[in-house]
Design a protein that fits this description.
The chain is an alpha+beta fold and 135 residues long. The protein has 2 domains: 83 residues, ATP Synthase, domain 1, CATH 2.60.15.10; 44 residues. Helices cover 30% and strands 44% of the residues. Strands 1, 2, 3, 4, 5, 6, 7, 8 and 9 form a 9-stranded mixed sheet that branches. Helix 1 runs antiparallel to helix 2.
Length: 135
C-alpha cells in the first residue's frame, strides 16, 4: 500500500482542501504530473485543467484550476491556485465567460509576448471546456 502525504489546495478565496492523500494528478504547464509520497522536491507552473485527488480515505475528488503553482516536497504538496473550484460546482457559462474575457483582452493586447500568452490561455480554457463537457 502506498504511503500517504499531506496535500493542500489553496486559492485566494479559500482553502479548498487540506488532507492526507495517496496521489494527486496536476496539470503542470509541461504536462500532467502525478505526485505521490516521497516525491523529489519540485516547483511547477500549472495551466488551466483538472486536479485529480485520490484521498487516503479512498474518495476521489476533481477540481478545476485556472493556473497557479505547485510546490512539491517529499512530505507533501501545496498548490497555490490563481482560481479553483470543485468540478461539480463549476457552471459551463463560467468557462465561456473566462474565454470571452481573454478574447477581449487579446484584441487590446499590444505586445507580442502578451498576445502569445493570451492565445495559449484561450486554447487551454477551450480544451478544458471540451474535457468537462465529455465527463
Amino acid at each position: 500500500m502506498p504511503d500517504n502525504f499531506n496535500f493542500e489546495l489553496v486559492s485566494p478565496e479559500r482553502m479548498l482542501l487540506s488532507e492526507l492523500v495517496i496521489d494527486v494528478v496536476i496539470p503542470a504547464s509541461e504536462g500532467e504530473m502525478t505526485v505521490m509520497a516521497h516525491h523529489a522536491p519540485t516547483m511547477a507552473a500549472i495551466k488551466p485543467g483538472i486536479i485529480k485527488v485520490h484521498s487516503a480515505s479512498g474518495r476521489k475528488q476533481d477540481y478545476v484550476i485556472f493556473g497557479g503553482f505547485a510546490d512539491v516536497l517529499p512530505t507533501g504538496c501545496t498548490v497555490l491556485a490563481e482560481s479553483a473550484i470543485p468540478v461539480e460546482e463549476l457552471e459551463q457559462d463560467e468557462l465561456t465567460r473566462r474565454i470571452n474575457a481573454a478574447k477581449e483582452e487579446l484584441e487590446d493586447a499590444e505586445h507580442h509576448e502578451h498576445k502569445s500568452r493570451l492565445e495559449k490561455f484561450i486554447l487551454e480554457l477551450t480544451h478544458l471546456s471540451g474535457t468537462i463537457q465529455k465527463d
